[in-house]
């Protein structure tokens, strides 16, 4: 199989590096175009990341020799597109939100599909915000997105906030079995890598917890409603519930976002054993299609009293699974549990790659 050539925007940043590393041996995609800020443009990729490569795994063979383009120069990407070196781009841009929004639209208008990690378009009504196991059907709004904007081949698809992915798939699995979730109380313990690099200063994090992450609680309370929403005409309409109350904290962990979740069900309430069985047996479209980055078991149930833990569980099943544990009754609501996912893999670059695989499988790439 001939690999599809892809580009990475923001390729020198923390999430961009994760894209580069994860795509090194991908069976479908091959990085052939990299773009970043003007200060990195014009340098070979190896030189642009020298002294600032943050991952234990290296970038793929040949990527180090790629010349970094200016991500603001859409024409450069378009030239690569026309040469056959860039069929679509992963966006890991680190700019002001309005700048990202305009730039991603410029790429799509030029005919280059954008699979984005950025938050700029998460609330754009005709842009699907995908978790591949939950709402793959939202991708079907792409033809309407193109028609409404006058785009030919380009489109924009985004992934949601990294922290909600530690509990959204378990919640969806229960909803799929007919259990209404009316209210959720969520406390997240979020790794420092979620702030990028250099991120939060070490003197702020060592021996400390920071009980504030700008905009994070609003994202945690609102994004699930779009993911659980429905496509109506040319827009995605939010689901009416569940009602979510979130507390988001930065903790001194390198990778892995943890969430302590309490759920209130509707009239029909599952037993603890039913919940465990539903989660252990859950499979969805990515597993049916055997997409390369899809975890074989999307939800891993741990029975130990002290799991999940970031160091022990964040890399489970290609770092793409959600690990749950401490499943027990809640004295305020009905059920409580702890969820964990790898924030820069499942919650960022790996999730973006899985979305691209889904789009390819559905004929959009």
From TrEMBL:
Keywords per UniProt: Amino-acid biosynthesis, Diaminopimelate biosynthesis, Lysine biosynthesis, Methionine biosynthesis, NADP, Oxidoreductase, Threonine biosynthesis
Any GO MF annotation of the entry: aspartate-semialdehyde dehydrogenase activity
A biological process from GO: diaminopimelate biosynthetic process
Pathway as given in its UniProt record: Amino-acid biosynthesis; L-methionine biosynthesis via de novo pathway; L-homoserine from L-aspartate: step 2/3; Amino-acid biosynthesis; L-threonine biosynthesis; L-threonine from L-aspartate: step 2/5
Enzyme active site: 162 (acyl-thioester intermediate), 257 (proton acceptor)
EC numbers on record: 1.2.1.11
Residue ranges of domain Semialdehyde dehydrogenase NAD-binding in the record: 5-142
Keyword Transferase found: no
Keyword Amino-acid biosynthesis among record annotations: yes
Gene3D superfamilies documented for this protein: Dihydrodipicolinate Reductase, domain 2 (3.30.360.10), NAD(P)-binding Rossmann-like Domain (3.40.50.720)
PANTHER family reported for this sequence: ASPARTATE-SEMIALDEHYDE DEHYDROGENASE
Role summary: Catalyzes the NADPH-dependent formation of L-aspartate-semialdehyde (L-ASA) by the reductive dephosphorylation of L-aspartyl-4-phosphate.
Family: Belongs to the aspartate-semialdehyde dehydrogenase family.
This protein's name: aspartate-semialdehyde dehydrogenase
Organism: Gracilinema caldarium (strain ATCC 51460 / DSM 7334 / H1)
